């Protein structure tokens, strides 16, 4: 059919447009996350360079380490604040309150919501993960997922020993994020390094295995996170598509999901890649304390355990 | 199934990786923190060790600076990563009376106790007399004229004319009053500035308490930069007040 003829047909009948809307709908969380991530960066950038203000107050000044909203509310990175406290220095109450506020928000939302909805490195490592999945599929070596907790412990220990906030001084997240707002240096090289590592060396190597900030937030939301991915065992047919796309597939252990009726692991970033991809709609966002997706009686079927999906 | 031997071996290996990784990590951080002593900090910055620990690298001081003086060090810049600094030859510190950078600092890395911006000690100006126009005999004294603390931070000394030489007006820095704002360095008309600002500890000496200057003792306690007294601000080892160097302890007490 001629493309013009295609365009002349009514919208509702156009299979191409319908396919596009379906596809866009299946990417809804992904698109929302990118909007939030880029929006946060843009607010910082616009406030500094274009003087963005609301009621005459600067919108968002600073960066993700610490910032001020509308010249009134201070926000601070709780992990950076903790490291500074461990160097043995007394902090002003302003930054302590800011850190407590951010910590409180992520305690409730689920700690690693920070990772997939705010962190500026996430789009890059997501893209590297996508390329790994589509083009490469080879890991040079295996890293244990719990390695990040060792890195986290090291970051805190070294802060005590050397008297400087250890991770803040080497953080590729900070280096890149600051330079995107305050002017380019060589911070992008750190990002290129992470990208190559995640794409060609270890899949989800940085965010999924090494990043101590991710480890910190994993610990933060572990027992208190209220927004969780709920699991409906009755409709699940164990196809494994969710685990294939999940950047932290260990959190989708079906045996544990069946027990808890939801993803309880603090390592889940609430990125919601699994929700639209599930052909049976067995996964959905919900409150931690609410009942599972649909209250149907549990139906027994072969469970996929960790041994099947190493 | 992990055997006890295997478990112990793995633990030792893990500890070894953590130790070597940790040492490399701390080396990187310490090296980065100490390698660039040339950075000029915003007004009220605490001594380096404290400043480097407390600065959360948020850049709110840089956002608050109305003159875009302050920059955040990017990777490979000439200051420790992510910390604020300024280069006076590009844009100096114009010493705002309300010190907005200090007010914006959420952690206290820029001392909240600094009330008067003229008390800040960001650095110390020094004059390269070999390339200073005034010291070569031209009339310039621009640094003196632009200095916000004229006669306190820079004064001009007149050298009387000698045989077949005209009189000279020589600018000199008074370390007691200099804030290190760098307005002089910014204004210096030579191709490369003949007056520059550097962190005081890089260029300032110290006489030491054991030298005795009898002619000053007559005036009571010794004072001035010649007395071995360090400047307030970034130097933290100022001698105790009331302790007069060269005191004749043999004639005190029981002796």
UniProtKB/TrEMBL annotation, chain A:
For this UniProt entry, which segments traverse the membrane?
A: 35-57, 95-114, 149-169, 181-202
User: What SUPFAM superfamilies does this protein's entry cite?
Assistant: 4Fe-4S ferredoxins
The protein's UniProt keywords, in alphabetical order, are: 4Fe-4S, Electron transport, Iron, Iron-sulfur, Membrane, Metal-binding, Repeat, Transmembrane, Transmembrane helix, Transport
Instruction: Name a single GO cellular component.
Output: plasma membrane
**Membrane: present as a keyword of the record?**
yes
Single GO MF descriptor: metal ion binding
Residue span, 4Fe-4S ferredoxin-type domain: 227-257, 259-288
Please indicate which superkingdom the organism of origin belongs to.
Bacteria
NCBIfam families, from UniProt? napH (TIGR02163), PRK09477.1 (NF007013)
UniProt name for this protein: Ferredoxin-type protein, NapH/MauN family
UniProtKB/TrEMBL annotation, chain B:
4Fe-4S ferredoxin-type domain segment(s): 45-75, 82-115, 169-200
Question: Where does the record place the region Disordered?
Answer: 219-255
- InterPro entries annotated for this entry? 4Fe4S_Fe-S-bd, 4Fe4S_Fe_S_CS, MauM_NapG, TAT_signal
Tell whether Ribosomal protein is among the UniProt keywords.
Answer: no
Q: Which GO terms describe its molecular function?
A: 4 iron, 4 sulfur cluster binding; metal ion binding
Q: From start to end residue, where is composition biased (Basic and acidic residues)?
A: 228-237
Q: Where are the transmembrane segments?
A: none
UniProt keywords (A-Z) are:
4Fe-4S, Electron transport, Iron, Iron-sulfur, Metal-binding, Repeat, Transport
Q: What is this protein called?
A: MauM/NapG family ferredoxin-type protein
Protein's organism? Thiocapsa marina 5811
Q: What does UniProt list as this organism's lineage?
A: Bacteria, Pseudomonadati, Pseudomonadota, Gammaproteobacteria, Chromatiales
């Amino acid at each position: 059919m001629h493309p013009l003829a295609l365009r002349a047909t009514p919208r509702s009948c156009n299979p191409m447009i319908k396919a596009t809307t379906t596809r866009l709908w299946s990417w809804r969380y992904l698109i929302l996350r990118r909007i939030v991530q880029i929006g946060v960066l843009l607010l910082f950038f616009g406030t500094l360079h274009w003087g963005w203000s609301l009621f005459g107050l600067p919108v968002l000044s600073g960066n993700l380490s610490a910032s001020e909203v509308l010249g009134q509310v201070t926000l601070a990175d709780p992990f950076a604040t903790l490291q500074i406290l461990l160097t043995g220095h007394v902090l002003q109450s302003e930054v302590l309150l800011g850190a407590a506020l951010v910590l409180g928000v992520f305690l409730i939302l689920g700690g690693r919501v920070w990772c997939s909805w705010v962190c500026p490195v996430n789009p890059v490592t997501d893209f590297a993960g996508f390329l790994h999945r589509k083009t490469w599929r080879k890991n040079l070596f295996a890293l244990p997922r719990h390695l990040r907790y060792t890195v986290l412990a090291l970051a805190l220990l070294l802060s005590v020993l050397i008297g400087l906030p250890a991770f803040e001084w080497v953080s590729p997240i900070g280096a890149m994020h600051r330079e995107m707002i305050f002017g380019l240096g060589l911070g992008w090289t750190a990002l290129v390094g992470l990208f190559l590592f995640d794409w060609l060396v270890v899949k989800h190597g940085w965010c999924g295995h090494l990043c101590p900030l991710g480890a910190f937030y994993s610990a933060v939301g572990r027992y208190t996170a209220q927004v969780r991915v709920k699991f409906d065992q009755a409709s699940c047919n164990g196809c494994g598509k969710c685990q294939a796309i999940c950047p932290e597939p260990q959190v989708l252990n079906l045996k544990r999901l069946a027990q808890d009726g939801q993803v309880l692991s603090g390592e889940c970033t609430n990125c919601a890649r699994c929700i639209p991809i599930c052909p049976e709609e067995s996964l959905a966002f919900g409150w931690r304390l609410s009942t599972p997706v649909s209250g149907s009686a549990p139906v027994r079927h072969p469970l996929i355990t960790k041994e099947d999906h190493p | 199934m992990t055997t006890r031997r295997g478990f112990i071996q793995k633990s030792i290996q893990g500890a070894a990786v953590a130790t070597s990784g940790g040492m490399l990590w701390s080396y990187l951080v310490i090296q980065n923190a100490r390698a660039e002593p040339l950075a000029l900090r915003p007004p009220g910055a605490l001594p380096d060790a404290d400043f480097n620990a407390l600065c959360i690298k948020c850049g709110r001081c840089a956002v608050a600076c109305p003159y875009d003086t302050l920059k955040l060090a990017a990777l490979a810049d000439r200051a420790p990563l992510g910390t604020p600094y300024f280069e006076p030859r590009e844009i100096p510190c114009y010493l705002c009376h309300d010190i907005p950078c200090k007010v914006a600092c959420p952690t206290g890395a820029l001392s909240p106790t600094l009330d008067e911006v003229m008390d800040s000690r960001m650095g110390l100006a020094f004059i390269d007399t070999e390339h200073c126009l005034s010291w070569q005999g031209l009339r310039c004294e621009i640094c003196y004229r632009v200095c916000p603390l004229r006669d306190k931070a820079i004064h001009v000394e007149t050298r009387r004319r000698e045989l077949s030489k005209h009189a000279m007006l020589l600018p000199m820095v008074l370390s007691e009053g200099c804030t290190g704002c760098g307005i002089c360095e910014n204004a210096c008309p030579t191709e490369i500035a003949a007056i520059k600002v550097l962190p005081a500890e890089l260029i300032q000496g110290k006489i030491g308490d054991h030298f005795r200057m009898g002619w000053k003792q007559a005036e009571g306690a010794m004072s001035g930069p010649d007395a071995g007294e360090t400047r307030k601000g970034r130097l933290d080892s100022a001698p105790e007040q009331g302790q007069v160097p060269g005191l004749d302890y043999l004639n005190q007490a029981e002796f």
